[in-house]
Specification:
The structure is a single chain. It is built from four helices and 17 strands. The chain is mainly beta. The strands form three sheets. Strands 1, 2, 3, 11, 12, 13, 14, 15, 16 and 17 form a ten-stranded mixed sheet that branches. Strands 4-10-9-8-5 form a five-stranded mixed sheet. A two-stranded antiparallel ribbon has the order 6-7. The two termini are about 30 Å apart.
Length: about 325
């Protein structure tokens, strides 16, 4: 197994505070431990709400090497410059009847002639940090089709509901503004506010052209990664970044007694996960799931390095919950 990259640092989170220097109190000179891997000085205890952070085992660091190689083969991901869209493309969904709900979910929606000719133009996206930017817009039909992609996509039959009842007609569309949830907080976006015949309220669809806001989706593990060793836990979320201090969530469950967090720094990424000790023979675990918080103190600010999950090799993006 080839060495990871020069500059890899292992960090710990227990015992008395030691080295001066790095932001967050976790910096210092690495001490060679195995090959090119070093261990930083110990950090203060983090309190009962945070998992302890411990030096990773040889098995964990071997997994880091595999993950780092897979990430580099796929291309080290960039930290998103814009917030990711956590809302759906449709806002204020809700229906008065089951037939309306089924019609929407099956894409059985037509536009009145005047609506179909609505001009898109340009608008303004107001971001959570108070800044704003001009954005191109799309017409009602493209915006509506995109909003329905997460349902059943193309129009289809209506599961036993008569065709005459399984249809929605958009009689009016007004360009307006709506609140959307993003990975950085609530933004204000241009929307098409749709009046639908027979529906007691409007439904809005985001009108911004593709490429400005992107919805995060489920990601399979990177190709080429072997099965995860028993007792190894993934990082399911990135909660906060402040210089060299990084808050993450570690996936836990019914048998996570003794769960501890680990972090391995590389020059181009930071790999995070956790481990639990071996379980007694014939232990039965429940299927419950919990994300456990851990606070990590890096040897230098995270900067543009992505935070990579030890299990999947995928990046964890600030503010995006586990899917």
């Amino acid at each position: 197994m080839g060495a990871v990259a020069i500059g890899l640092v292992l960090l710990t989170g227990c015992g008395p505070a030691a080295a001066p220097g790095g932001a967050g109190g976790g910096g210092g000179t690495s001490v060679p431990a195995r090959d090119d891997i070093g261990t930083s000085p110990a950090l203060p205890d983090l309190g009962v709400t945070d998992l302890p952070v411990r030096p990773p085992s040889a098995e964990f660091t071997d997994r880091v090497r595999l993950v780092a190689d897979a990430v580099r083969r796929a291309g080290v991901p960039l930290v998103p410059a814009q917030p990711l869209l956590l809302s759906s493309w449709a806002l204020d969904e809700g229906f008065d009847t089951d037939a309306q709900k089924v019609a929407w979910g099956h894409g059985q929606i037509t536009l009145a002639p005047a609506v179909d000719q609505a001009v898109a133009g340009a608008g303004t996206l107001r971001l959570p940090d108070g800044s704003s930017r001009p954005v191109d817009l799309v017409g009602v039909r493209p915006a509506l089709d995109r909003a329905l992609e997460g349902a059943l996509g193309k129009p289809s039959d209506c599961d036993g509901i008569p065709a005459a009842q399984c249809r929605l007609v958009v009689s009016r569309a007004v360009l307006a503004e709506g609140k959307v949830r993003t990975s950085q907080g609530e933004a204000t976006a241009p929307v098409w506010r749709l009046t639908i015949d027979g529906l007691s309220h409007t439904i809005s669809v985001v009108a911004i052209a593709d490429g400005v806001l992107v919805r995060p989706g489920h990601q399979e593990p990177l190709p080429g990664l072997p099965d995860v060793p028993v007792g190894l836990h993934g990082a399911d979320s990135l909660k906060r970044v402040e210089g060299a201090t990084v808050d993450v969530g570690i996936a836990g469950g019914g048998c996570d007694e003794g769960l501890v967090a680990h972090v391995v720094e590389l020059d181009d990424m930071v790999v995070v996960g956790g481990t639990t000790p071996p379980l007694p023979k014939d232990t039965v675990c429940t299927a419950d799931y919990a994300s456990r918080p851990a606070r990590l103190h890096l040897s230098r600010p995270l900067g543009t390095r992505p935070v990579i999950d030890i299990v999947t090799g995928r990046p964890r993006v600030l503010g995006v919950p586990a899917f």
